[in-house]
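Propose amino acids for all 170 sites.
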């Protein structure tokens, strides 16, 4: 498995990533195209294409914050799901980033949410906040009640959330 950091918005992989991103995540859970393209010029952001046998199979959108990584989006493309590739990707994250925070839908919202929560638990994450609210991605989009997970216990959860709000969603 190969992890390629994409630094330019005109990289040939960006269109396939955005296409899957916009089809997988509901509008309230994602950036519009212009916002997405701006990620490539943000100093804290890493967009990483995940390749397996030279074929793009997914991506990560990471934010390098004060002392942890915030995973804004993590997707294995639909054609490659249920092949244990997501576990390999979390292995990469753990190997490269000792402190990881991410947000997910609460498990009571349906089978997919329950399956995702179980996946993250099996891969070393635990619930750190059930009352987390994801800010709106912009006009006409709503805030979302989500759960915050991590592979460690943040010393100050309020500071962690404030930093996510101020940098990722500002």
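Proposal:
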């Amino acid at each position: 498995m190969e992890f390629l950091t994409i630094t330019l918005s005109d990289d040939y992989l960006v269109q396939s990533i955005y296409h899957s991103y916009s089809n997988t995540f509901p509008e309230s859970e994602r950036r519009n195209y212009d916002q997405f393209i701006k990620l490539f010029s943000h100093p804290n952001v890493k967009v990483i294409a995940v390749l397996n046998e030279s074929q793009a199979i997914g991506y990560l959108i990471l934010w390098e914050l004060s002392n942890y990584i915030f995973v804004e989006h993590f997707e294995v493309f639909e054609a490659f799901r249920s092949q244990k590739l997501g576990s390999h990707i979390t292995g990469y994250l753990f190997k490269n980033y000792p402190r990881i925070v991410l947000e997910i839908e609460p498990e009571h919202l349906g089978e997919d949410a329950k399956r995702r929560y179980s996946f993250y638990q099996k891969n070393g994450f635990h619930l750190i906040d059930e009352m987390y609210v994801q800010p709106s991605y912009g006009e006409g989009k709503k805030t979302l009640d989500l759960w915050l997970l991590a592979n460690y216990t943040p010393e100050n959860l309020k500071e962690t959330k404030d930093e996510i709000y101020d940098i990722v969603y500002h």
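The first strand starts at residue 2 and ends at 6. The chain has a mean pLDDT of 95.
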